[in-house]
Amino acid sequence: MTPRITLATAARVLTQLRHDPRTIALMLVVPSLLLSLLWWVYDGGALFDRIGPALLAIFPFLVMFLVTSIATLRERTSGTLERLLSMPTGKFDFLAGYALAFGSVALLQALITASVAIGLLDMDTAGPAWLLIAVAVFDALLGVALGLFVSAFASTEFQVVQFMPALILPQFLLCGLLVPRDQLPDVLEAISDVLPLSYAVDAMSEVQANTDPEVWGQIGVVLGFSVALLALGAATLRRRTP
Fold it and tell me: Where are the bilayer-spanning segments (predicted)?
C-alpha cells in the first residue's frame, strides 16, 4: 500500500461525496431520524434506553454498508476502477482510500447520531459519551469494510441489496437486540459468537450499563473483522463487471 495514493483516493471520494447531497443526507441524517422515530414509537422510557444503544450500533453499520457497496460497484461498472488499476494504484490502495474516506464520514455520522441520542433524546447511558461515539465509529467502519467486500461479488445495485438478507439480517436477528444472546438456543448462540455485529452491540450495551466499561476486547474483534474484510476485498476485487 502506498500512503500517497491511498490519500489521493480518499480525497477523490470525499470530493465526489461533497457533490452528492442525497448520499450525504443518507449517511449523516438518516440514522438520527431513525433513532428519533424509535424514541417517538416508545415515547422514550426504559425500553428505548434498553434497545437504543444497540440500534446506535446497527443503524450506522447498515447505512454505511449500503452506501459503500453501491459506490464501489459504480466505480467498477463505470470503468473508473479499471482505469485506476492500470496506473500505479493497487487494489488495497483503492479499498484503503475508500475506507479512509467513508471512515471520516463515519466519524461525523457517529458524532451527530450520538449527540442526538444523548442530548436530544435523553438516552440513559452510564459510560462516557466519547466511548459511545468511538464504538459507533468502529461499527460504521465495519459496515464500510463489509460493503467493500460485497461489492466485489455484485454485478448490479440490485444484487447488492440481495446480499442484505444473507449477510445483514441474520446478524440483526442474532446480535442480542431482540433476545439476549445468552438466552438464545445453543446453536444460535454459537453462530452469534462468530458474527461481528454481535460484538458491536455487546460493546454498546457495556457502555450503557457500566460507568467503567471494558469494551476494548469487543472493539478489537470488530476492528479485526474490518481489516480481514478489507484484505479479502482486495484479493477478490475485479477490475470491471463482466
Answer: 24-42, 54-73, 94-118, 130-153, 160-179, 215-237
User: Letter for the amino acid at 27?
Assistant: M
Q: pLDDT tens digits for 120-166?
A: 888 877 888 888 888 888 888 898 889 888 887 777 778 788 888 88
Q: Residue 70: phi, psi to the nearest 5?
A: -70, -40
Selection from 140, 6, 153 nearest residue 76 by Cα: 153
Q: What is the pLDDT of residues 51-83, one digit of tens each?
A: 888 888 888 888 888 888 888 887 777 776 667
Q: Where are the domains of the chain?
A: 3-236
Asked whether the beta carbons of 181 and 174 are under 8 A apart, the reply is yes
Tally of CB atoms within 10 A around 127 = 20
| Residue position matching grid coordinates 422515530 | 37
Q: pTM for the whole thing?
A: 0.86
Residues 112 and 32 sit within 8 Å (Cβ to Cβ)? yes
CA distance 129 to 171: 25
